[in-house]
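Thread: Modeling a multi-component assembly for a lab meeting

Hi all, long-time lurker, first post. My supervisor asked me to bring a structural picture of a complex we are working on to next week's group meeting, and I have zero experience with this. I have the sequence lines for every component (548 residues in total). Could someone generate the structure of the whole assembly? Inputs are pasted exactly as I received them:
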Amino acid sequence: MIESIFKFFTTEPYWTLTRSILYLVGICIFVAANAAYLVWVERKGAGRFQRRPGPTESGPWGLLQPPADGIKLLAKQLMAPPGSDKILFWAAPLMVIAPPLVCLAAIPFGNNVLARDLNIGLLMVFSFGSINVMALMLGGWASRNKYAIISAARVVSQNVAYEIPMLLVVITIIMVTGTMNLQEIIVQQAGGFWNWNILRGIWDFSGGGWGHIGGNLLAPVTFLIFYICMLAETNRAPFDMAEAESELVAGAFTEYGGMGFGVFFMAEYANIVVGCALATILFLGGWQSGLGSGFGTLLTSWGVIGTVIGVGFFFAKMYFLIFSVVWIRWTFPRTQFYGLLNLSWKILIPISLFTLLLTSVLLKLPRLF
Amino acid sequence: MNLVTETFSGFLSLITGLRITIKQFFSPTITTHYPHQTLPIAKKFRGHIELKWNEETGKPNCTACNICAKACPSDCIVLDGIKPAGEKGKTVTSYKLDYTLCSLCSLCVEACPFDAIQHSNRYNLASVPNQWANMDLVQRYKDQVTRVGKTPYDPYAPAPAAAPAAEPAAPAPAPTAQP
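Re: Modeling a multi-component assembly
Sure thing. I ran the full set together rather than chain by chain. Output:
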């Protein structure tokens, strides 16, 4: 009986459906677990950076803190302020959590751990990622609270300012790789870590050694710009103007309580996961081990075990980036708003435009001779 | 050019900041996990007052002279004493301290001519308001003496006929332990 049901769902006409559902459930669990336990990582990290132990009382090493927080938030009454636009008010948290869930469908975690192998995966991730801004603006607007609206306006100007250099940087990557398929971008970075896009631009070992320039001479700078923009886009410190919990009440989320605020909170961490996964894919070789074309490639192409090792490498890089996000939050004070916009418009955009120009020139130069 | 050097030096200063915080991250924490661990309280700590006692006989130094009660600006001390049979001076029998009124000014300790009261080391006294309204310091002295293994002095006991049955000198230095 059970065997026949199992067979029914795992043979072809229904296997596609089963697979999609499994990925859907898997991604939801992944996002929820990450959102919950990244809060724990954040609090533990904050503690350690200030030489405190962080949460210790609930469970071993405070590991039961996230469930406790979740229960507390779930137990609270959901209230919309009188006179607010109820539909938009409750649509905003849903709109802010949905895009990272969708984006994760296109992100390849391993050499065949991937929900949908899209040709335009990169484009999809960025187009869905930009919904976040609108959701925050709606949340602030629908709250019928002047502080929320002002903060929402700040969020919009911030995210618009940082989307430009981010996309310019991504265009450089697309020009070098020649594809928007995320899996293919990773496959191109096979071999040693010097083949990763963060270094490949400087000299291309796989291509033709020293003389053959990979395209972008400023690739590490490009990575840095991408990383800064990722921080700003996910509204993380030192660019956390959206919430700014110590200056504004809670920025655009002032009127949200209980799980309404909890969803915004989860979405912030889900966005960090997506951003760091994207940085891993675009610059750090995704699931490639980076240990050279012999041993390293063998390691990640060795059947199921190779896939698991590849996923391990992916997560190691991704969680290192996430750790660095926490590290930065507890190191730098929040920037002032004009400083934030000056950084984007006066420094990041000119540099990223320059790298774009440089890359296109370097890609075209060999063809001229 | 100014912008370029400024950007570059600013970036370097950010790296310096990151280096400092990661050093803190890997150094051990210095937190005392309070309810599970406590730090030793300094001897100079001014807790509520308590009766000092002669460590050899277990007898309080207090002679119920009421100078401390008169010195107290908050009127939080009420004490009483009797003259035990066969003794020269008076001895305290009840010493009530209303700790909710006490401002820990230490005037009673300074006023005491017999060096009979001192500040205790108790600090974790958070409770419902009236629990400390009437502290019985004589009872506290008895508990402390019992804890170090001696019989507390009883002023109501009949006068000893011969030499007092002094206990063998206990080796314990009798710390003023926390109750």
